[in-house]
Amino acid sequence: MSAFRKLYLKKFLYKIPDYKPEKLIIPAQVIDVVSAWKGLELIIPEILQKFHIGNETCIEFGVEFGYSVVIFSNYFKEVIGIDTFEGDIHTDHRGNHFENTKTSLAKFENIRLVKSTFQDWIKEDDRMYDFAHVDIVHTYEDTFECGLWAVKHTKCAIFHDTESFMEVRKAVIDIARHTGKQLYNYPFQNGLGIIVE
Ligand SMILES: C[S@@+](CC[C@H](N)C(=O)[O-])C[C@H]1O[C@@H](n2cnc3c(N)ncnc32)[C@H](O)[C@@H]1O
After folding, report:
1. Domain total for the chain?
2. pTM, whole model, 2 decimals?
């Protein structure tokens, strides 16, 4: 898709109200690993405060080397991270890195990593969480399926890559319509969609 067409679609067809943070807050704990998520940690505390999100449980789909899951471990008592830990068609790294990632995150005692597809996990889990993050393979179908589950099982779910992948943006818009929830978009660091009650 040409850059012009992408901009046109974003501006007119797939427009989402901007999320405009008033304050940027640096979390106490971060981990130095490769990630396209860097920078988004600054807006998380305000999102949690503004939308009155509890601090008990968070679930993340798409952990990779753990950058975002460590950010959430600052704000929730229990954080579950689901990933195949094998990469996907959109990641640079492919191949099993579950044990290495588990070792590098071992000091964050409130994080539990599970090696699973999101498809297998959501078949078995009917628990409610305070918060969810979806950052898996960036196809429409996978983002819609995982994201719909996340939105139905939380008060607030966020989605990475709403600017860099039109498929993610479309899926997020459709999930918000389908569930009747509010949708915002933070248009930096590849975009963060926010769906909230
Ligand atoms: C973009 S990376 C996640 C980046 C991470 N959130 C960060 O902070 O840097 C996407 C991850 O989703 C995982 N993934 C892709 N499809 C998946 C699926 N169906 N189930 C579980 N994990 C999946 C990949 O293994 C990869 O580690």
Report:
1. 1
2. 0.96
